[in-house]
């Protein structure tokens, strides 16, 4: 087995470390002081220790240190000097494997195989049950002679696969490490992949206006917080919560398998609306606006529709409308083909047009609570005008009878 040792040549001139002529030196390997080797040299000549014959065949592989000192013709010794050298196997050296572990868990090492004198190593650490955030992978390589290289490490971040959307914004001004008292949280609903933060913030009951350092942080749909961002903002006005919510407009009697809409007047200062409703109902479309529509109402006993308005500074008390199930048939029919009402909404004048061949026998109008408002038996059966000018704003149901068929239409009065 061929082995080699690399030695750094060293030239020493007399008079550098000692006052007299250097006539010799001694050396030893590592801490083996008992096996010192003494050497003499003619006075006045340069001392060359580059030719020291190191018995590397009897030494282990890896780094070692040689120590030596000089003496002059008066028997005075210099201080001890040393140099590092390495004993290694002669080549070729080929990589054949390695192992890695995550963070400080070096008891759970994973071996991998490679082939060649160099390698582009890609370690797959997915599915390892790691917590979200930053981690460190540690690894070392082994060659065909069984020698291990030094431990290397790389940082990586464990994240959840997308899509990533923002669901919550929080911001504050107090420079505290935990729990600032002026922190404000704003739900992002619907969730967004990108948010213009400046458009979403309200400064509620903060004590200061003017230029203020504001701290922002965002939460995504995988419960991962982003880093804290600081911006200097010129605060002109301290905001408050929204105004109170008005009464809910909509049907209090709801028939089976019908579609119903409820709404409130837009609340000044409101950023979003929160609706609650019977659990059997299903929302159709947006559920955060001042109007909400439910569909596929099958059956329920009774309940409530409530709504609150909110912004970053607070939430109003709820507005409530009691609702109950009605299977009498007043709200169960759909519009027959060829019957339409227009304009809708209107200030009070509506036109009902029937282009089918069946005459209109009777027409009744009911308000949102189901109360009968008008009962008409028209003489003209294909086109007539409804006058609701004296009625309050809101939704009304027009029930049209054509022989044995009944059609239900909804109109909105807006003065």
Can you describe this structure?
There is one protein chain. This protein has five domains: 3-89, Immunoglobulin-like; 95-158, Immunoglobulin-like (Sandwich); 166-235, no CATH class; 253-325, Immunoglobulin-like (Sandwich), CATH 2.60.40; 339-413, Immunoglobulin-like (Sandwich). Residues 1-19 and 328-335 have low confidence and may be disordered. The protein has no helices and 30 strands. It is mainly beta. It has a five-stranded antiparallel β-sheet, with no helix packed on it.
Low-confidence region ranges = 1-19, 328-335
- Percentage of residues assigned to helices: under 10%
**Major beta sheet, strand line-up:** 1-7-6-3-4
Q: Topology as H/E string?
A: EEEEEEEEEEEEEEEEEEEEEEEEEEEEEE
Biggest pleated-sheet summary = 5 strands, antiparallel
Number of extended strands:
30
Cα gyration radius (Å):
44 Å
CATH fold-level name of the largest domain:
Immunoglobulin-like
β-sheet strand percentage: over 45%
End-to-end distance: 104 Å
Mean pLDDT: 80
Query: Could you say what the CATH architecture of the largest domain is?
Result: Sandwich
Number of helices: 0
Q: Output the CATH class name of the largest domain.
A: Mainly Beta
The number of domains is 5
Q: Categorize the overall geometry.
A: elongated
Structural class: mainly beta
């Amino acid at each position: 087995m061929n082995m080699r040792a690399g030695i750094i040549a060293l030239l020493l001139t007399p008079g550098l470390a000692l006052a007299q002529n250097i006539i010799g030196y001694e050396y030893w390997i590592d801490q083996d002081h008992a096996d010192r080797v003494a050497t003499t040299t003619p006075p006045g000549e340069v001392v060359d220790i580059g030719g020291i014959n190191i018995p590397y065949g009897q030494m282990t592989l890896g780094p070692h240190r040689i120590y030596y000192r000089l003496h002059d013709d008066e028997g005075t010794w210099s201080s001890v000097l040393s140099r590092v050298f390495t004993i290694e196997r002669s080549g070729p050296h080929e990589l054949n494997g390695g192992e890695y572990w995550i963070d400080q868990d070096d008891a759970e090492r994973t071996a991998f195989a490679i082939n060649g004198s160099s390698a582009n190593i890609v370690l797959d650490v997915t599915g390892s049950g790691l917590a979200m955030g930053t981690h460190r992978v540690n690894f070392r390589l082994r060659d065909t002679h069984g020698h291990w290289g030094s431990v290397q490490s790389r940082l990586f971040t464990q994240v959840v696969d997308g899509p990533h959307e923002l669901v919550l914004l929080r911001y504050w001004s107090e420079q505290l490490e935990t729990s600032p008292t002026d922190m404000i949280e704003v739900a992002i609903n619907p969730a967004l992949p990108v948010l213009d933060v400046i458009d979403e913030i309200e400064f509620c009951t903060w004590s200061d206006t003017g230029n203020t350092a504001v701290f922002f942080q965002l939460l995504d749909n995988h419960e991962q917080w982003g880093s804290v961002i600081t911006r200097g903002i010129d605060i002109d006005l301290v905001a408050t919560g929204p105004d109170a919510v008005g009464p809910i407009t909509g049907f209090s009697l709801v028939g089976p398998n019908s579609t119903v809409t409820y709404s409130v007047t837009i609340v000044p200062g409101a950023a979003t609306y929160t609706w609650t409703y019977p659990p059997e109902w299903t929302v159709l479309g947006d559920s955060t606006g001042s109007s909400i529509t439910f569909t596929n109402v099958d059956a329920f006993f009774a309940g409530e529709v409530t709504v609150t308005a909110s912004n970053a500074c607070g939430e109003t008390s709820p507005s409530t409308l009691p609702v109950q199930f009605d299977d009498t048939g007043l709200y169960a029919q759909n519009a027959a083909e060829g019957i339409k009402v227009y304009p809708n909404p209107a200030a009070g004048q509506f036109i009902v047009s029937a282009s089918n061949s069946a005459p209109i026998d009777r027409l009744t109008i009911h308000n949102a609570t189901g109360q009968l408002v008008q009962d008409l038996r028209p003489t003209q059966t294909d086109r007539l005008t409804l006058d609701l000018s004296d009625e309050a704003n809101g939704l009304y149901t027009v029930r049209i009878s054509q022989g044995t068929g009944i059609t239900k239409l909804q109109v909105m009065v807006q003065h």
